[in-house]
Write a structure and sequence with these properties.
It is built from six helices and no strands. It is mostly helical and 110 residues long. It has a domain of 72 residues. Helix 1 packs antiparallel against helix 2.
Length: 110
Amino acid sequence: MPVNDQEIFGVIDRAVDNFNGNLDELESAIGMLIVGRQYGWRVIMLIHSPGTVRKYCKILNIKHLRELLPEVGVLAHRSNAWRLVEGTENFWKAVRGQIRGIRTTRAEKS
């Protein structure tokens, strides 16, 4: 269930306060969360490997992106990866890497 911005920033503040490690990983985890607010967790799952998402969730101390982010955000239509799988049954196959050419970080303002 998506939450409000105050709760998201609470997650970020707690992650920053409790973090030990390389700051570039913390920064990337926070960036994933902030971008996910607008694009949704499905787009995030398409642009990152499952292992990367797990690592970032661990840094943020959350179990699943679904706890915080909308399934499909207001800007999801800009994601090339999302446009390739939207409306198909191939989403989880694409996430697992079983369909080549889907995992792209490209977004367009079209």
